[in-house]
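Review form for a predicted model. The reviewer records the input and the model, then writes brief findings.
Reviewer: anonymous (R2)
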Amino acid sequence: MLREAGLLVLALFAMLFVMFCSTSRAQVIYTNYTFDTSASGWGVWPNGTGQFVSAQWNSSDVNNSPTSGSLLVTSTFTGASQQSYVWSGNSGSFSTPINGALVTNLSCYIRFDPSSPTNSSTDSYGTIEFYVVTSANDSTSIQLPNSSTYYHQTAGNTGWVLYSVPVSTGGNIYGIQIELQTYSDSLTGTSKMYIDDVQLNGQGLPGPVNGTSVMDWNNVHQRIDGFGASSAWLTISTLEGTLLYSTNNNITYTNSTSTNVCNGIGLSLLRNHIVFANTTSASATPTTGETLVMQQAQSYGARVWSTPWTPPTGFKNTNNLYGSQPITNAANGGTYLGSGGNITNVNYASQLANYVYSMKHTYGINLYAISIQNEPDAQVNTYEACQWNGSQIHDFATNLFNALSNAGVGSTKIILPESENWTDPDNLAGPSMTDPNVAADVGIVACHNYDGMYGPTSLTKNSYGKPLWETEVAILSGSDSSIANGVYYGQRIYQFMTQANANAYHYWWLVSGSSTSGNEGLLDNGGNITKRLFAFGQYSRFVRPNFYRIDATISQTPALVSAYKDSASPAFAIVVVNTNSLSDVIQTFNFTNFTATSVTPWVTSATLNLTPQSSVNVTNGSFTYDVPAQSIVTFVGQGITNSPPVFTTVPNPTVNPGVTVLVTNTATASDVPPYSLTYSEANIFPSGATLNSSSGVFSWRPSISQANTTNQIEVAATDSDSAGLSATNSFSVVVNSITNPVVSAGSGGGNVSFSQGQFSMTINGPQGPDYTLLMSTNLVNWQTIFTTDSPATPFAFTDPNATNANQYYEIQIGP
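Model under review:
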């Protein structure tokens, strides 16, 4: 969203340079001041009354080398508009000039002592400016990259920071000048600024840098919900929507200035603006002017969510919670009036629920989420806004949850607090998320990232166990479609994914809605393509919703590597950002717990826009690729994993002889793609047992001869891959001892009975075996007269043919 002019200065230089924390050094150096032993060759000049400036060698070194050091610049400031200059050469000149046409950038490392005073207006240690001297008598110098660019090192960030500043002069360069000034705000006290590895670098001359990284399929981090931007107040063309939300290839993209053949960047999230109702009635339904782009984005599979910039004016007063800017338009500012379950909260919650219902049933747009308020802590009066405190957000969240449920759209998630700063400095989320009853109603914790160009110092943020979204960021001035700007956002997304563990990342506008600041959109003014558009596409096209970030350990490389895998398929993506504007990175990628047959690189660079390259073979779980200087490369492939099956523990059953025991052996394998499993008998298997090779069901009916034994069983599971990985499951079956059967009273009670040629008896014995009754009249010849399989005992038997006075009976059990 648009910001007040006072914040534009800090954001301006984002498009002009790339700054990153690193310990790498450029490969080719036209002039290199590493301050190995002294600070000779450098002079100082104070500009301001009562200042003192000195430049001395110091043992602190960016590479922690015991044989090197840095330049310590000590400046005493007493107020505003004071400056300290540090010159290369005592008079500001090199002894031999350098051809500026061969120079692409000036780079150096800078850090500040924590005791240094800070500038309250920029939250920094002061304003840093860089110059090259362009005359032999050092009478002329050029500010890099132009006279409106200022750099700041965030207060509290006392580590080494690499500044890489473009140089675009065709004449000779006679010297380097680094300036620290108090700008428009006072610095009072002694500033200690350390400078190391000052270099002028040339394009095309550095050799490549080697790097290695390891991707681990089984080391899984956060789920990815997607990447997106906002259509607030915009009307975009169908062609623009296709470029932004589809994954179509070879789109002929034409606007008023040019025609380009592009591949769709596949955004998966769309944030839109809610037009507030002009009444406080609970039955009112807010609207939006963006239904067409919402429908188009949804048709490409994107999730759509909405944000109100202000409630109806009747739900606000003209006071300010944050700042004291006067409000001249009731919609543009003021403070929300709702609290608890008052009528404001109830009616406004009802209105937003009506909006969600209307989007679904009138326009077919299923809103994934709805935010409570855009930037409730913003001090603005030039566009729609409303200030809330954390307590109000806490109370309203429950009202909104109930209203959505009552309207039948309770699956729509609630987003809060959308502070303008990632740090949420006013703790707008805290009251809601520390109340378990309210936290249960919240679906997503989200904030913007207007904390400064590279701020905040730490991106770590409490998500309270919810998905964590970054929902708006942009450079709010200028128009920069360069690869440096694209790589900057490739780096920022990397940082949010790997440091903040963010689940989603959004830019501000899809297409810049500003007449002067094209940088506010992924597409510039007039819909012109930019490198940041394709930088987003390096992530959004391939890292889809419900992918998960997996470990990508970086070693010995300046490249930024992050990796992601799909939760529903073998697909994976590795995104590499090379921020170095001079050197390629020869990067080796090693796979752990998976492999692939090949990967396909997609590249955004100074000359390529999200362009696929020839596939690269993967050999023994590894491949190497030349990542171009200042580029983003995404490698996409299909993962192959093959790990041994893992058995589920089974019980050790105890059975009687003759009782069939069934044991289901269940093994699982996390193979990608999944392999089938075959079960087989292993080393130890009892006589008479069987095993189903498909289901793993072990079946055994122990015999009488196996009574009173403990039997160890081993079952193997083998996957169908050519490697045939297997695992073995072991369990025991205990067979009880056997007892002899007995004959008890007949059906009439008492002893066995004989009546009218019928002999009756009751047979009792162990449960499980088969029972066989034999009869003999001479104890020599026996015949079977009755057999029953594993009967329930006791059971009765009657011999209807007991006609012989001498008949003998024998009971046998088996098998």
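Findings: The CA atoms of residues 554 and 727 lie 33 Å apart.
Further findings: The first strand starts at residue 18 and ends at 20.
Recommendation: see findings above.
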